[in-house]
Amino acid sequence: YAGNWVYGIRPTSGGAQLYAQSPTDLGTTAAISLYRTSAAAVSAGFTGTTTHRHVYHGLQIATLEPIANDISVTGLNPRTGRPLRTHKADYASMDPTTVPSSRPDNWLGFQRPYNLTAPEITTQAACDDVCQLIYDRFTPVQEVVEWTSTLLLDGSNVPYWRGANVRIVGSGTYRILSFEFDAEVEVSSTEYWRECRYTGLKVAPEP
User: Fold this and answer.
1) Contact of 52 with 151, CB cutoff 8 Å
2) Minimal CB count within 10 Å: which of 58, 94, 108, 118?
3) Cβ neighbours of residue 7 closer than 8 Å, sequence gap 6 or more
């Protein structure tokens, strides 16, 4: 139940690496900044062949409602055969009487339940942990983004992978959730244009 972690295999300057990182490990500091125009990137100090690496286009941003605001998790004690239960709710987001000026960002005005029953959860501590993880993941408003750019590379020409934070200047900092790209030969067999399509989750507002 490491549902909020980012894990997999990523490239490094020393070869492929197996990694698993929690949201705390990933932080909110941007590894690279992208600008809307080449002129803006130049003004920020990126010139010559590095300018195009700091420009995005085709930006789309969507705000997603909370998946749920009333979470229940049920496990099973294998020794007693009795259920294990944990419940956590965000009552502030449910209250239909809250005036608009006082509503939290994730306000819905009604109950939106989510129930998980998993007999493989066999201790109360695990049941509590799973409920908290789902609560943290499902109750906030989430801002997701899609953009197109060249393949984003670090100073060693290693691609930024899932979990890396990218600042979209003017919008905020987003954690890469997924990406795909097409590679085409541009001038010679050693020069490529790599157009990438990224999706990300907002982790920090624009400074």
Assistant:
1) no
2) 58
3) 19, 20, 21
Q: Which of 155, 200, 175 is nearest to 61 (CA)?
A: 200
pLDDT digits (tens, 9 = 90+) for 77-115: 999 999 999 999 999 999 999 999 999 999 999 999 999
SS3 203: strand
Exposed e or buried b per residue across 60-99, where buried means at least 16 C-beta atoms within 10 angstroms of its C-beta: eeeeeebebbbbbbbbbeeeeeeebebebbbeebbeeeee
Q: Read off the pTM.
A: 0.83
Among residues 163, 164, 168, 170, the alpha carbon closest in space to that of 145 is found at 168
The identity of residue 119, as a single letter, is P
